[in-house]
Specification:
The structure holds two protein chains of two kinds. Chain A is an all-beta fold. Chain A is built from no helices and twelve strands. In chain A, strand 5 and strand 6 form a beta hairpin. Chain B has a single domain, classed as Immunoglobulin-like (Sandwich). In chain B, a hairpin with a 2-residue loop joins strand 7 and strand 8. Classes of the chains: A mainly beta, B mainly beta. Chains A and B meet through strand 5 and strand 6 of A and strand 5, strand 9 and strand 10 of B.
């Protein structure tokens, strides 16, 4: 069965430091990949997505993720985090041609400290 | 622009009582609709999805059911709630087979 693994459940980091949230997926077929962010007691917001084309995708608030097919990874990075980036981040995969069902990782709690 | 609504925002229900959570989408037609549950400290579990009126697919055998009486309305129900039904319920919609957009969620506590 396909699965998504987020390797870190919690990532504490100081403000203005770089951060990487790791995500690996297991699938032998084509996938679309997504990162969602969830602030406390809110729904999920789409942060960025990889459907095809350039393997490096960027969000409007400075995050980027790189699709690496050989390593089946889609790690999320930001060169300098802000306090406001504190949230839970979910990596998700959608198997091509399977009705649009998302498979989520367990989430990574990013905590940015001053 | 498209918006998705869920209500109620929070709900406290006793064990054995019925449940009805509603999700509606505005500004689009014939969306794919999804119900997810997020238990405390865990990821999201897909419960149901629908590609059209009256078309419901269940992902996990459980105490819940879903219905889609109108194109942009998706309802999650239970006849008798269990303690294990507590969680954060999220509705999502998709314009195609690609990205999904989530509602604000309903926090359900079963006591």
């Amino acid at each position: 069965a396909q699965s998504v693994t987020q390797l870190d459940s919690q990532v504490p980091v100081f403000e203005e430091a770089p951060v990487e949230l790791r995500c690996n997926y297991s699938s032998s077929v084509s996938v679309y990949l997504f990162w969602y962010v969830q602030y406390p007691n809110q729904g999920l917001q789409l942060l960025l997505k990889y459907l095809s084309g350039s393997t490096l995708v960027e969000s409007i608030n400075g995050f980027e993720a790189e699709f690496n097919k050989s390593q089946t990874s889609f790690h999320l990075r930001k060169p300098s985090v802000h306090i406001s980036d504190t949230a839970e981040y979910f990596c998700a995969a959608m198997i091509y041609n399977q009705g649009g069902k998302l498979i989520f990782g367990q989430g990574t709690e990013l905590s940015v400290k001053p | 622009s498209q918006t998705i609504h869920q209500w109620p925002a929070t709900l406290v229900q006793p064990v054995g009582s019925p449940l009805s959570l509603e999700c509606t989408v505005e500004g689009t037609s014939n969306p794919n609709l999804y119900w997810y549950r997020q238990a405390a400290g865990r990821g999201l579990q897909l419960l149901f999805y629908s590609v059209g009126i009256g078309q419901i697919s269940s992902e996990v055998p459980q105490n819940l059911s879903a219905s889609r009486p109108q194109d942009r309305q998706f309802i999650l129900s239970s006849k008798k709630l269990l303690l294990s039904d507590s969680g954060f319920y999220l509705c999502a919609w998709s314009p195609s087979a690609y990205e999904q957009y989530f509602g604000p969620g309903t926090r359900l506590t079963v006591t």
